[in-house]
């Protein structure tokens, strides 16, 4: 059994290239037992690549990795598991056709004689879910689970491996405050058991709450490695982005015009009931609440991806046909979806093709696509959102997680909508670009556009919104103006608000 | 009994079984002979080859792959064995049962190496081996046919053997293969890996599933089953030429898909595939009984396939709706 502070794993001068692209140019990382180690850096800095080398998915081209006093065996996920490493990947990696119990134990199912002991697997999985405070049914199929619940299954899987080193790549990106807290409790208990946790996050506030050590990466190299007491937020941000960030939420006062979007008594009994609100031109309205409170479903219903049973959606006073994204797009509504990998991108198509996909009018020539215009459009958005890629035609698949997020954002912002609905606009996006995204959203409102923003990040909600609507379990429980809203009020409404409001 | 109860069909196989019984009933009304012992025996005899192939193909489809070379492999093995038996009169059924699967496995190894090793799309690879193997049969056979007198009497009599008046020896083996693979797919890690690979190939790599080994072995298994099916073919028809079982690969895919093995991967069982094969054969028998000609029979087969895929979608939607209803209750 490792003692607290023992050096478990050490990476020195690790290098990795993908074709011509250099992902890591010499990174160092030391992992000690009983420690929570945060790995920070801009989108595309190489964090996920580091973790994937330890997970056995990639092989490093140079540098050394040692596990205790032995060299670490790379290149196979099985070997990594055997060496005591468990991973929660940034991209969802559940098997949707299989049950939750099976997802937890895939490849390591408990056996009774020559046969898998399914009863045992279910009992064990149920125990892990209970430990995580989410009583999911282990016999249920993974298909249809919310992103937050999928994350719970991933965490249970990692715990069930009984590993010494647990790697978590943005485990909190899809979670809201109370779920993050639960995850932190789990991380603390792992720490107490003298295991090492490495975690990646772009939510710097939680990083400073939970971690013992902070390593900052920039352009594929380690910039600094400090105990949390030896650094601070400003310093970390500067190391990450190479400059000071003065204002995170540059709120501008915009002229608020007439009603652009009017939602009345919108109901889909499975997800939300009697939701009414308006969004005016030039206004930013935030939908706050816990993950699973029905916010995303309301947005999807407005845009026409899902149906609703009763209620109405009016755009500039006119009824909007229900269940038709085409009708919504004709009214110049855009929706940046929550689950971008599945709903927003064509993974094997190029960055340029993805960004221009919904802006066909703007890039078409007389007969064919005008590729010059497509290139120019992509370039504009690369600059605005600092999207990092080798070449415009690189498949989106090869971009880092955060850069994929930026690509979806660019695709919808490029349509120049009148009504912009954004679901978690800055999920997985680094701190430098976050400010850029906020500026873009503000600028859109400044041009008289109506913005409906869903966000689980309270500072973002409080910093950006003119009005905040809080949902709980499918009901609207509060509507707060910018001046009324405080962190406490929003949290209170989201967790205990009365459904009559 | 305990052993059997493990195979208690999940709802999907259960409802398929019910559809099968209803179909047999309807066919029986059209042609009462269908419901007699002889009718049942004929159904089993004529289904054995396709059912065995569907069992072999199920794990491959579950892994989101396909094997189109099975019918050609049946032709190759059947002709090869007949040829060997003609040249070696001392051969009995034992040699046939050993050589058949071995020949099939050679094709399976080739498919497996190309699909799993080079990561080529199985649709293209096995379409290629479909033509290569069939071509090989044409070349090797040199237009030589074989009839009952050149085949081992022990093999042919085994082909005629019937238990309890209804159960032919070949179909008994089919049931055995079905149960063993169903057990394997449900209770062995290797079997579960197949479902995982078909469900999310990308994630299968990440969690360290041996994707190469599983994919390769699935093709070798399908090859072995195709070889055995070649022996079954000889036992049933007692004659073979270079066109034996020509073009039947899609009937096998249809049987598996109708039996609930989803073409998109990740779900299905060999029990379902076997019921699917029986269902296709029953409908064919029923159509023949009312005098529908061969062209319409294959058109109706195609229709059946489309209906099966539609039913699959409908069932998926139904389970989604059930989930929704549960949510509505929770939310109320
Ligand atoms: N499979 C791949 N093929 C080609 N390039 C890749 C591949 N995986 C990563 N890269 C490149 O390597 C660099 C580092 O990516 P990585 O995913 O490690 O970033 P990250 O730090 O995790 O970023 P994020 O915060 O956005 O998740 C990126 O420029 C990315 O485009
Ligand atoms: Mg990443």
UniProtKB/TrEMBL annotation, chain A:
<keyword id="KW-0547">Nucleotide-binding</keyword>
<keyword id="KW-0472">Membrane</keyword>
<dbReference type="GO" id="GO:0005886">
    <property type="term" value="C:plasma membrane"/>
</dbReference>
<dbReference type="Pfam" id="PF00005">
    <property type="entry name" value="ABC_tran"/>
</dbReference>
<dbReference type="InterPro" id="IPR003593">
    <property type="entry name" value="AAA+_ATPase"/>
</dbReference>
<dbReference type="GO" id="GO:0005524">
    <property type="term" value="F:ATP binding"/>
</dbReference>
<keyword id="KW-1278">Translocase</keyword>
<dbReference type="InterPro" id="IPR050107">
    <property type="entry name" value="ABC_carbohydrate_import_ATPase"/>
</dbReference>
<dbReference type="GO" id="GO:0016887">
    <property type="term" value="F:ATP hydrolysis activity"/>
</dbReference>
<keyword id="KW-0067">ATP-binding</keyword>
<keyword id="KW-0762">Sugar transport</keyword>
<dbReference type="InterPro" id="IPR027417">
    <property type="entry name" value="P-loop_NTPase"/>
</dbReference>
<dbReference type="InterPro" id="IPR003439">
    <property type="entry name" value="ABC_transporter-like_ATP-bd"/>
</dbReference>
<protein>
    <submittedName>
        <fullName>Unannotated protein</fullName>
    </submittedName>
</protein>
<keyword id="KW-1003">Cell membrane</keyword>
<keyword id="KW-0677">Repeat</keyword>
<keyword id="KW-0813">Transport</keyword>
<feature type="domain" description="ABC transporter">
    <location>
        <begin position="9"/>
        <end position="244"/>
    </location>
</feature>
<feature type="domain" description="ABC transporter">
    <location>
        <begin position="254"/>
        <end position="498"/>
    </location>
</feature>
TrEMBL record, chain B:
<feature type="transmembrane region" description="Helical">
    <location>
        <begin position="93"/>
        <end position="114"/>
    </location>
</feature>
<feature type="transmembrane region" description="Helical">
    <location>
        <begin position="216"/>
        <end position="238"/>
    </location>
</feature>
<dbReference type="GO" id="GO:0005886">
    <property type="term" value="C:plasma membrane"/>
</dbReference>
<feature type="transmembrane region" description="Helical">
    <location>
        <begin position="250"/>
        <end position="280"/>
    </location>
</feature>
<keyword id="KW-0812">Transmembrane</keyword>
<feature type="transmembrane region" description="Helical">
    <location>
        <begin position="286"/>
        <end position="311"/>
    </location>
</feature>
<dbReference type="InterPro" id="IPR001851">
    <property type="entry name" value="ABC_transp_permease"/>
</dbReference>
<feature type="transmembrane region" description="Helical">
    <location>
        <begin position="43"/>
        <end position="62"/>
    </location>
</feature>
<keyword id="KW-0813">Transport</keyword>
<feature type="transmembrane region" description="Helical">
    <location>
        <begin position="120"/>
        <end position="141"/>
    </location>
</feature>
<keyword id="KW-0997">Cell inner membrane</keyword>
<feature type="transmembrane region" description="Helical">
    <location>
        <begin position="162"/>
        <end position="185"/>
    </location>
</feature>
<feature type="transmembrane region" description="Helical">
    <location>
        <begin position="14"/>
        <end position="31"/>
    </location>
</feature>
<keyword id="KW-1133">Transmembrane helix</keyword>
<dbReference type="GO" id="GO:0022857">
    <property type="term" value="F:transmembrane transporter activity"/>
</dbReference>
<keyword id="KW-1003">Cell membrane</keyword>
<keyword id="KW-0472">Membrane</keyword>
<dbReference type="Pfam" id="PF02653">
    <property type="entry name" value="BPD_transp_2"/>
</dbReference>
<protein>
    <submittedName>
        <fullName>Unannotated protein</fullName>
    </submittedName>
</protein>
């Amino acid at each position: 059994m490792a003692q607290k502070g023992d050096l478990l794993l050490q990476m020195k001068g690790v290098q990795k290239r993908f074709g011509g692209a250099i992902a890591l140019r010499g990174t160092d990382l030391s992992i000690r037992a009983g420690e929570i180690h945060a790995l920070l850096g801009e989108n595309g800095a190489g964090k996920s690549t580091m973790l994937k080398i330890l997970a056995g998915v990639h092989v490093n081209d140079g540098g050394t990795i040692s596990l205790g006093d032995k060299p670490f065996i790379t290149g196979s996920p099985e070997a990594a598991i055997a060496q005591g490493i468990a991973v929660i990947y940034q991209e969802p990696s559940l098997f949707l056709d299989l049950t939750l119990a099976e997802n937890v134990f895939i490849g390591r199912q408990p056996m009774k004689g020559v046969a898998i002991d399914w009863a045992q697997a279910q009992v064990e999985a149920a125990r892990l879910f209970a430990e995580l405070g989410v009583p999911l049914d282990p016999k249920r199929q993974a298909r249809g689970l919310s992103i937050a619940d999928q994350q719970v299954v991933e965490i249970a899987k990692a715990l069930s491996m009984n590993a010494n080193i647990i790697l978590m790549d943005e485990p909190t990106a899809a979670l809201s405050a109370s779920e993050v807290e639960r995850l932190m409790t789990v991380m603390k208990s792992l720490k107490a058991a003298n295991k090492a946790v490495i975690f990646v996050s772009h939510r710097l506030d939680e990083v400073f709450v939970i971690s013992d050590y902070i390593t900052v990466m920039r352009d594929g190299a380690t910039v600094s490695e400090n105990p949390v007491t030896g650094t601070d937020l400003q310093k970390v941000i500067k190391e990450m982005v190479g400059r000071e960030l003065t204002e995170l939420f540059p709120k501008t006062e915009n002229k608020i015009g007439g009603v652009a979007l009017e939602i009345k008594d919108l109901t889909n009994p499975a997800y939300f009931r009697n939701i009414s609100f308006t969004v005016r031109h030039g206004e930013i309205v935030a939908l706050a609440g816990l993950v699973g409170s029905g916010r995303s479903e309301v947005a999807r219903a407005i845009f026409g991806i899902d149906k609703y049973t009763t209620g109405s959606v009016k755009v500039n006073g006119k009824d909007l046909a229900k269940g038709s994204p085409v009708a919504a797009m004709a009214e110049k509504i855009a929706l940046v979806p929550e689950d971008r990998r599945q709903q927003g991108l064509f993974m094997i198509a190029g960055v340029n093709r993805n960004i221009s996909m919904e802006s066909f009018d703007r890039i078409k020539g007389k007969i064919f696509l005008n590729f010059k215009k497509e290139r120019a459009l992509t370039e504009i958005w690369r600059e605005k959102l600092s999207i990092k890629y080798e070449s415009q035609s690189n498949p989106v698949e090869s971009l880092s997680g955060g850069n994929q997020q930026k690509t979806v954002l660019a695709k919808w912002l490029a349509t120049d909508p009148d009504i912009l609905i954004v679901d978690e606009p800055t999920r997985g996006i680094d701190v430098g670009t976050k400010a850029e995204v906020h500026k873009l959203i503000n600028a859109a409102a400044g041009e008289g556009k109506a913005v409906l923003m869903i966000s689980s990040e309270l500072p973002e909600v409080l910093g950006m919104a003119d009005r905040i609507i809080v949902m709980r379990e499918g009901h609207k429980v509060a509507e707060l103006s910018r001046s009324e809203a405080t962190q406490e009020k929003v949290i209170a409404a989201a967790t205990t608000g009365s459904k009559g409001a | 009994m305990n052993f059997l109860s493990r195979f208690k069909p999940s709802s999907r196989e259960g409802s398929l079984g019910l559809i099968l019984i209803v179909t047999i009933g309807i066919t029986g009304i059209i042609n009462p002979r269908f419901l007699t012992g002889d009718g049942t025996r004929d159904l089993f005899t004529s289904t054995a080859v396709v059912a065995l192939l569907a069992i072999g193909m199920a794990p491959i489809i579950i892994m989101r792959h396909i094997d189109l070379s099975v019918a050609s492999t049946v032709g190759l093995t059947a002709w090869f064995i007949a040829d060997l038996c003609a040249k070696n009169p001392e051969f009995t059924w034992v040699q046939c049962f050993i050589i058949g699967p071995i020949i099939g496995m050679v094709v399976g190894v080739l498919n497996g190496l190309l699909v799993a090793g080079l990561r080529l799309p199985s649709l293209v690879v096995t379409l290629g081996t479909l033509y290569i193997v069939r071509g090989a049969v044409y070349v090797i056979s040199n237009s030589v046919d074989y009839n009952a007198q050149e085949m081992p009497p022990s093999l042919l009599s085994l082909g005629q053997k019937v238990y309890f008046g209804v159960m032919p020896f070949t179909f008994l083996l089919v049931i055995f293969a079905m149960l063993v693979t169903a057990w394997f797919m449900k209770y062995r890690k290797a079997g579960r890996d197949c479902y995982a690979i078909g469900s999310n190939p990308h994630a299968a790599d990440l969690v360290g599933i041996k994707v190469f080994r599983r994919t390769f072995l699935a093709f070798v298994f399908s090859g072995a089953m195709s070889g055995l099916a070649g022996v079954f073919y000889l036992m049933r028809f007692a004659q073979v030429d270079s066109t034996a079982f020509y073009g039947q690969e899609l009937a096998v895919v249809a049987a598996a898909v109708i039996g609930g093995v989803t073409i998109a991967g990740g779900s299905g069982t060999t029990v379902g595939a076997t019921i699917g094969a029986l269902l296709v054969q029953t409908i064919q028998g029923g159509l023949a009984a009312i005098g529908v000609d061969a062209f319409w029979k294959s058109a109706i087969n195609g229709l059946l396939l489309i209906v099966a895929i539609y039913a699959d979608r409908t069932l998926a939607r139904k389970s989604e709706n059930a989930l929704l209803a549960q949510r509505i209750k929770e939310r109320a």
